[in-house]
Amino acid sequence: MMKVGLYIHIPFCQQKCLYCDFPSHANLTNLYQPYVAALCREISGLGGVLSGCIVDTIYIGGGTPTVLSVNCLSQILEQVHDSFSIEKTAEISIEANPGTVDFGKLLALRAVGVNRISFGVQTFEESLLLSIGRIHSATQGVEVVKMAQQAGFVNVNIDLMYGLPGQTTQQLSDSILQAVELDVSHISVYGLKVEDGTPFAIMQQQGALHLPDEDTDEAMYELTTQLLPQKGLARYEISNFAKIGYECHHNLKYWQYQPYIGIGAAAHSFWQKERLANMTDVAAYIRAIEQGLLPIAEREIPERSTAMAEYVFLALRTVQGMSVQKFNDYFNADFFTYYGDAIARLTGKSLILTTKDRIFLTEIGMKYGNVVFRAFLP
Ligand code: SF4
Hints:
The chain is α/β, with parallel strands linked by helices. It contains 16 helices and 15 strands. The protein has helices at residues 32-46, 70-83, 103-111, 126-131, 138-150, 169-181, 199-205, 214-230, 249-255, 282-290, 304-316, 324-331, 335-338, 340-348, 363-367, 369-376; strands at 2-10, 53-62, 85-96, 116-122, 155-162, 186-191, 234-237, 240-242, 260-263, 268-271, 274-278, 296-300, 322-323, 352-354, 358-361. The strands form three sheets. A nine-stranded mixed beta sheet has the order 7-8-6-5-4-3-2-1-9, sandwiched between helices. Strands 10-11-12 form a three-stranded antiparallel beta sheet, with no helix packed on it. A three-stranded antiparallel beta sheet has the order 13-15-14. The site of iron/sulfur cluster has 11 residues, from loops.
């Protein structure tokens, strides 16, 4: 049976963080119930599409899924179980903001089958949390992780950020060490990017956003990539570190060009070589579902050359790199002939390494991934 991942998008947050351009909205509590009803209808409608498949990963992301009540989250998961075949050992993840859970909610999430939780902590430095507009304190960040572990979560991720306004390398180091001390199985560390349309972008234009300089940013990157493996969390993707066996199976699907179905407003799917995107407007999504329409806003089968480039650069994000044989089988092509020039150029710059059957990013390549990825684009 073909395996497939499910991504379920919850586009709600208690408050927008100042750097965030994700498809999520504050102050839409009135839409929680109708949205959950629409999600359940969309899931039910997809039952036939996935009848020959088995779901081995479910990822409830956002937004902040944990702004919803346990009752709402249970309804969604019940509908998933009613509509699809779910593998017994499926990884079922949820994203959580430390300001939106308590022990009771964590216990209830375990009881409905969620077995992986990812906390958006970002930093354990109080002043930095305030400066980026998070709703929780550093103490809450520590407490919720401990509570999740007490509630039975073995597979716990903490998201951290570097390059925050006024952040020092020491503060980043302290946050990483605090996360390690909590003995979580997975840590993701992302560099801040100022995205258009966010309050940070406006502050930057006004000269009111004081980010670490390039050297400090680089030192933070180096610190992250060295410290976490020293502490037993191996790097398995550019921004992701895990204890052995705790890599996020759902996210691996994205990098390994595996099929997944996105459900909910703004959710993306990759199904039968086609990329699909649902409408982003939450009210429009609910209306479409209520009228029995498909909520799809865009769909496209990428051109062969684009699909090949995507395949390569997604695989290269992982430390395992890409299997040349699998690429050749998937595209009925010869990788080394097709990309001969790019490979020679990138090898010359020490950005990639190739063996007979694999291609990897080097340490430098990991740092300058975008340069490598551009080289494969048509
Ligand atoms: S909690 Fe997450 S999704 Fe919500 S606004 Fe903050 S960063 Fe964005």
